[in-house]
Amino acid sequence: MIFILVFSILYLALNYYIYNRIAGGLNLSAGASKVLLLIFALAALSFIPAEILSRHYDTGWIIPALYLSSVWLGVTSIAITAFVIADVLRIFIRAKRFRYYATISALVLTGLTSGYCLYKQAEGPVIKEIGISAPKLPPELSGFTIVQLSDLHADLSKSKRQFENIVAQTLALKPDLIVITGDLIDTDICRLDDFCKILRGLKAKYGVYAVTGNHEFYTGIPLFMKIAANSDIKVLRNTNVLIAGAIELAGIDDAQTAKRFENISLQESLSSAFKKIDFRNTVILLSHQPDVFDLSSDMGADLQLSGHTHAGQLPPMDLLVQILYKYPFGLYKKGASYLYTTCGSAFWGPPMRLFSKPEIVKVILNPTAP
Question: By the 8 A CB rule, do 213 and 183 touch?
Fold first, then answer.
């Protein structure tokens, strides 16, 4: 409730800033300004109710309401960036009509960028292939393929066709192992048309494994565990499993929400996950949060697979992600350990992306350097 309250106040304030900049920059009449203010207020106030209702009901009108309010959230994010840039330029450019033309330019930039971002996300995920050196891997497992999915955020805003395409793309990679690094769900997807049946289509020689993300805690861990069981997905909660007799696959709960919801520290989670591991084998850690990498690598993880950041999705979040996270997106190496932070296979909130594309990650392990 505190998060919802803070988010709502901030979101309303940002919408008011954009409204104020448009009304003032275009010198709108009092009547037009009131109409514009009403539009902004209704659009801004629709997102939280649509999100909450979509978690409990799936009647027809909720889907377009959730879509439109989510797109408005994305447009707001882009507009904030455009108008902040315009305001900064106004400090240096004092021309009499610059405010008017800056407002027009910001609106055009917002519109064009929003359209491009919608198109870019709608294209669906790309395949990202990375090779990882795993010197402890037996030669007979050379080329061992792991497909990583993350941040699918299954809810009413995603269609059956989107999930079917993701499953088909994943299976086409012929994975030895499939892992899902958190934020699989945002609602009870098994009440929706065949979603659990679609997820059951994920098959790999050594199975499908997942860990919790922060959204699993928000949605409810018991519900997530039920959905995972119905979808033939094994969940690693601060534990590990031996794969192919030579790969130690460990998984921890989302570090931030586990601390807040269950009072379990990161150190405790990792200690539990690594407790029975034979470190002579290749050790792979699944962690929703990427910034546990410093500790996990020190404790013996050879490879960590993470998500959570979405690479920001849209400005200014993409900049904030770069500031707030040490390992925001991409492949990192520390000593002999590797981390790959994916930008996610779908999206949360706005169905939009600017500087990143949704991705399905194909990780190929080899005993020698790739």
Answer: yes
188 and 258 part of one domain? yes
Q: State yes or no: pLDDT of 251 exceeds 90.
A: yes
Bridging pattern class, strands 303-306 and 282-286: parallel
Instruction: Give the whole-angstrom CA distance, residue 25 versus residue 33.
Output: 11
Q: What's the sign of the alpha-carbon dihedral 285, 287, 289, 292?
A: negative
**Using an 8 Å Cβ cutoff, are 140 and 366 in contact?**
no
3-class secondary structure, 59: coil
46, two tokens = 């629709």
Q: What is the per-residue pLDDT across 114-130, written as a single tens digit (0 to 9) for each?
A: 999 999 999 999 999 99
Domain range for 65 is 2-122
| Beta carbons within 10 angstroms of residue 126's beta carbon | 13
> How far, CA to CA in Å, does 20 sit from each of 11, 71, 171, 195?
14, 20, 50, 43
Q: Are 173 and 221 in the same domain? A: yes
**Do 308 and 294 reside in the same domain of the chain?**
yes
Instruction: Write b or e for each residue in 74-91: b if 16 or more Cβ atoms lie within 10 A of its Cβ, otherwise e.
Output: bbbbbbbbbbeebeeeee
From 97, 122, 147, the end of a domain falls on 122
List beta partners, residue 40: none
Q: Region 301-311: what's the mean pLDDT? A: 98
Q: What pLDDT is attached to residue 144?
A: 98
Cβ(173)–Cβ(345) below 8 Å: no
Cis peptide before 316 (omega within 30 of 0): yes
Same domain, 95 and 159: no
pLDDT band at 314 (very low <50, low <70, confident <90, very high): very high
